[in-house]
TrEMBL record:
Belongs to the carbon-nitrogen hydrolase superfamily. NIT1/NIT2 family. The keyword Lipoprotein does not apply. This is Carbon-nitrogen family hydrolase. Coiled coil: none annotated.
Length: 260
């Protein structure tokens, strides 16, 4: 099975959700010119890291952002892994990913589990506790958000349920670009899955972001990589290579959970 993806590598207007929602709408329309089966957005694309103002600007129960993703998915008949957005709930504000299918149904929801202290997330956000598993276009998938990629044990837990694609929306700063690339490649190789990762570009008051969104195959080969500017990155995933890698080197059968 082959599937076409589009990754929307974009700049984000700091603390301006309405501006960002309009931009996402335009970018999705632009991405559709190449007729992808699914689209990935970056982390916190509605507010950026304007965390101090989250009380004013976070989306109540993710309603506005979910409504937009649903409408765009239906209009363009495309599955959208909606990066992540600010999501204010009674128990706290979360950095939340929503995935919707072509009909606009919500198929996946994930709240970032590991909060990144270097960007003050733990001061303003609550951490999620639930893993992420969903089916997109008949493919079992999982997703984590940005800093989560430093925790292979969390990702492995989800992959053990059969996920073939790992989605990673991010706002990853430029000074650690080499970590971004190496960590993503390692997650693809050790889990013998596709990694589809979307990083933002541009600057906010505290950081410059690295771009370099990527699609990596289950052998660790980078099949598409963006630069450091706004770009819609397109790639085709051949899902048969997941089974191929898992059959040739049966890492999942050879694990020794009795030892660790
Ligand atoms: N937004 C994030 O989670 C950034 C993570 C990061 O930069 C890292 O080095 O890890």
């Amino acid at each position: 099975m082959k599937k076409k993806c589009a990754i929307i590598q974009m700049d984000i207007a700091f603390g301006q959700p309405e501006t960002n929602r309009k931009k996402v709408e335009e970018k999705v329309a632009q991405a559709m010119k190449r007729q992808p089966d699914f689209i990935l957005l970056p982390e916190l694309w509605d507010t950026g890291y304007d965390l101090k103002r989250l009380d004013d600007i976070a989306d109540d129960h993710g309603q506005k952002n979910r409504a937009l993703l649903t409408r765009l998915a239906r209009k363009h008949q495309v599955a959208i892994i909606g990066g992540s957005v600010s999501n204010r709930e009674a128990a706290g504000t979360y950095n939340t990913l929503y995935a919707v299918d072509k009909q606009g149904n919500l198929t996946g929801e994930y709240r970032k589990a590991h909060l990144f202290r270097l960007m003050n997330e733990e001061k303003y956000l609550s951490a999620g506790k639930e893993p992420c598993r969903f089916v997109m276009e008949h493919i079992p998938c999982t997703a984590v958000i940005c800093y989560d990629i430093r925790f292979p044990e969390w990702i492995r837990k989800n992959i053990l349920h059969g996920a073939q694609i790992l989605f990673v929306p991010a706002e990853w700063p430029s000074p650690r670009l080499s970590h971004w690339r190496h960590l993503l490649i390692s997650r693809a190789i050790e889990n013998q899955c596709y990694v589809v990762a979307c990083n933002r570009v541009g600057q906010d008051p505290d950081n410059t972001f690295a771009g370099h969104s990527m699609v990596i195959d289950p052998w660790g080969a980078i099949i598409a990589e963006a630069g450091e500017k706004e770009e819609i990155l397109h790639a085709e995933l051949d899902l048969s290579s997941v089974q191929e890698a898992r059959t040739l080197i049966p890492v999942f059968d050879d694990r020794r959970p009795d030892l660790y």
